[in-house]
Amino acid sequence: PGSTALLKRFAGGLGLGIGASVAGGCTVGQGLTGLALLAPSSFVVMAAIFGGSSVATFLARPPNSPGGGAS
Fold this sequence. Notes:
mainly alpha; single chain; flat
């Protein structure tokens, strides 16, 4: 990949690392520990994560790709 793509990937990884540090954990930890303990807040958070990811994926897809995308 070109230097612009590498810079974007590095910035994204850095943002994820900072966000996980500020939040005191990450989504994997939330899913593994919270759901295993049947914590109600974990079910809400994981539903929001999956829902947000689905919407973001739908909106980020090109309109002519299989599966839709925002027009």
